[in-house]
What does this fold into?
Amino acid sequence: MSERFTPKVPVQLDPPKDDPISLEELAKCDGTDPSHPTLVAIKGTVFDVSRNAAYGPTGQYRVFAGKDASRALACSSLKPEDCVPEWYDLADKEKTVLEDWFTFFSKRYNVVGKVEGAKNT
It folds into this structure.
């Protein structure tokens, strides 16, 4: 992984999990219910972003919480309608941006599972 995405403050991450997480369960993890973690999925991999308020109910990136936001991240979009898992039809430049986001998240947030039935990995 590229060193340019290494966090300024070291992060101790747990070993990644591959527990299946349904889309229904992921949707419940949108930061609005304190009894659920805040989760964001990228390319079918689910990250726990609970400790970053930016993904919480009033945060600037709340639109990504509880969804597989692959397309929105690839397109640098904060539009809710872009927060979908489909990204295969994007240009190579956008696919590179998506891969950069995946690397960024991988170095900062615990992987807690995989979206059940994800085909966008």
Summary: The first helix runs from residue 23 to 28. The chain has three helices and four strands.
